[in-house]
Amino acid sequence: MNQPLIKVDTVTKHFVRKTDVAERIAIRAGLAEEPKIVHALDEVSLEIAKGEVVGLVGESGCGKSTLGRVVAGMLPVTAGSVARDGQDIATLKGRAAKANRLATQIIFQDPMSSLNPRKKVGEIIGEAPRLHGIVPRGEVPALVEKLMGQVGLDPAMVNRYPHQFSGGQRQRIGIARALAVNPDFLVCDESIAALDVSIQAQVINLLVQLKKDLGLTLLFISHDLSVVRYISDRVVIMYLGRVVESAPTDQIFDRPRHPYTQALLEEIPRIDRRGHRFNTVKGEIPSPVNPPKGCHFHPRCPFAMDICRQERPPLVTAETGHTVACHLNAGTGQLPATTEQQTQQGVTQ
Amino acid sequence: MSETLLEVRNLKTWFETPKGTVKAVDGVDLTLNRGEILGLVGESGSGKSITGFSLLGLVDPPGKVVEGSILFKGEDLRAASNKRLQALRGDRIAMIFQDPMMTLNPVLRIGTQMIETVRAHANVSKAEARAMARDALGMVGIPRPEERIDAYPHEFSGGMRQRVAIAIALLHKPDLIIADEPTTALDVTIQSQILSEVQKLTREMGMGLIWISHDLGVVAELAQNVAVMYAGRIVERGTVDQVLDTPMHPYTRGLIDSLPMENDRGQPLKQIPGNAPPPLGRPEGCPFRPRCGFATDACLSEPSETGDLSRGWRCFHPLAQEVTA
Going by DSSP bridges, is the β-strand pair B225-230/B233-239 parallel, antiparallel, or unpaired? Predict the structure, then answer.
């Protein structure tokens, strides 16, 4: 197998609130508590091959956006490393660091807050290629026109402002801006979550087309499993800062091994299921400030055993290309025979 | 169980703006029975939320209900005084919003807010009101309601806050609940917990529920009947099975087709071309015409509703002749 494009190796990311002098003295004197640490990522490993579309799924606070930003080099890691083409991106300097940052671009969730409302579309898309000297100054307008065409925007609208566009068109502007610096890797962080259903399909089709035309690699971060299933080659499931399962798309949807994955798959609302009696996972998502000991999912897991409360399950390869972090069946997780029965009961009730 | 709870006829809510009249809701008819869950589906700007607000008399100026009737248990709410509406709101009719922080006062303990709501409509002592509040919290699945009743809203997670908002809506065992996208901001596993509670409660308490949502999947699993809104009108209605299995309106069909299904991988998704029309620039005739593959000159005039209030659609070119069972 070739070297992966992106290799995330046991990355941990903590967020701590900065303390000021007075607070530090108070802490010394025992008058105040140390600020709490948010364990956003807890020894996460992930590989992305060239040309692959990896879907990263999880609920709020599971660290999926943090992972996206770490991979894109926007956030430094607390421990571990992120390598691109075998090179640790933290060690890159000067020109190499810049080239690396340009080659990875992020498309954000809310185009309205990621586009400067005072700039015309042409400036928004053309700014980066001009500043970074991607093309000579005189050719920037032609490049903007080409990019707008590529993402399905009428180049005649080049002098309009973001607010004059609809939500779907704004997201297209965000995509054009990302593509302007010739990246080969895009991180899509909930890029379609804010769009209406009929517009979502347009943007998904555009992303798939661009991926094909430009040979892009995508990390597609989303909480919407049906979209992830449609677009991804491989799916990675996160829960509270850890990867709990990773497998090729069909495999994870047909034979999920982690009880959390199974619950998640069971509970996406589907239009072909009517009058469903919801069969829910109990409990809340715990806080990443104070995650539970052992397996993070154990307080909500119907199959939790003693070991799950004590020891963190390692990410184990259960079958080819399918890894899971679960203590059941000697660390290979549990196939969803029981889940299927539950589904059938749910439908017939 | 077919007692009619709510009858809305030809409801029009318009907003007068300097640039013209925005017809947010433009002739909506609805019927809801006791114990029924109706899914009101539409994209942003379709008028689904304004329809909900109009029912409760909660539309702020420059918006105004300009036409139509709203009969709640036979009483015309449009003719009702503000005092009467206040007495009904929170008592017989309750609303749940998308963002529970909009419902909850951040500087008051939830117990204080709930007791206030109880005593606004019932002549009971503080202790009795507190007991009712505690019971309501328990009913929506909040663990240790006795302790949690003294917490502030920020001490709850998003899902728990929404449960509190639902508990407040349930305090007086209302006949009708209007829920405006109440689970949209929640995670899948939490959404599922809330849907399960809501389903159980409507079944047990026999109230009517209007569930406003853009998510066809949620509506399919939760509701019995569904109405699809586009540009201020209901363009199709029927049972969930009728509307989702044999949609008659090309817009409904388009919405269903644009959802990625498991067999779609590798093929482009079917998309509805174009964008929803801006509220001030709706095309003449059928508002879906510019995006519709079936549009003809006939569509330049306004389609009226075919069928009736249990199964109907507004289209000159319905997709299939329905098989009547």
Answer: antiparallel
CA proximity to B140, closest of B114, B121, B168: B168
Measured CA to CA, the distance from residue A235 to residue A24 in angstroms comes to 43
Tell me if B300 sits within 8 A of B289, measured CB to CB. yes
CA dihedral B192, B196, B201, B204 (to 10 degrees): 170
Q: What is the pLDDT of residues B184-198, one digit of tens each?
A: 777 777 788 888 888
A230–B260: do the CB atoms touch at under 8 Å? yes
Q: Quote the tokens at residue B208.
A: 């009517």
CA gap B45, B62 in Å, rounded: 17
Contact A253 B265 (CB under 8 A): no
pTM, two decimals, is: 0.82
**Per-residue burial over B212-238, b = 16 or more CB atoms within 10 Å of its CB, e = otherwise:** bbbbbbbbbbbbebbbbbbbbbbbbbb
pLDDT along chain A (349 residues), means of 10: 82 86 85 82 91 89 87 90 89 87 88 86 91 88 91 88 85 91 91 80 89 92 87 93 93 91 84 71 77 89 89 89 89 64 41
For residues A281 and B192, the answer to whether their CB atoms sit within 8 Å is: yes
Which 3 state secondary structure label does DSSP give A63? coil
Under DSSP, the state recorded for B273 is -
CA distance A205 to A106: 18
Q: What are phi and psi of B25, to 5 degrees?
A: -120, 125
Report the DSSP beta bridge partners of residue B200.
Answer: none
Which of A212, A278, A285, A297 should we substitute to test contact with B (largest number of B Cβ atoms within 10 Å)?
A278
- C-alpha A315/C-alpha A333 separation (Å) is 10
- Residue A20: which residues within 8 A CB-CB, separation 6 or more? none
Q: What is the pLDDT of residues B289-322, one digit of tens each?
A: 888 888 888 888 888 888 888 899 999 888 875 4
Q: What confidence score (pLDDT) does residue A201 get?
A: 87
Which among B187, B218, B276 is the nearest to A59, CB-wise? Answer: B187
**3-state class (DSSP) for residue A222:** strand
CB contact under 8 A, A264 and B157: no
CA distance A125 to A172: 11
How far from the centroid of its chain's Cα atoms is residue B103's Cα? Answer: 16
Domain with CATH 3.40.50.300 in chain A: 1-232
With beta carbons less than 8 A apart as the criterion, state whether A105 and A183 touch.
yes
- CB pairs below 8 Å between A and B: how many? 130
Shortest CA distance from A206: residue in chain B: B268
Going from the N-terminus, what domains does chain B have, and what CATH number goes with each? 1-34+42-81+217-261+269-325 (3.40.50.300)
Residue numbers of A between 73 and 132 with CB closer than 8 Å to B: none
- Which DSSP state fits A85? T
Rounded-to-integer distance, Cα B47 and Cα B263, Å: 33
Q: Do the beta carbons of residue A116 and residue A124 sit within 8 Å?
A: yes
CATH class of the domain at A1-232 = alpha beta
- Interface test mutation site (partner A, options B191, B194, B216, B221, max chain A beta carbons within 10 A): B221
Q: Name residue, tokens 């006062």.
A: B105
User: Could you tell me if the ipTM is greater than 0.90?
Assistant: no
DSSP result, A135-186: S-GGGHHHHHHHHHHHTT--GGGTT--GGGS-HHHHHHHHHHHHHTT--SEE
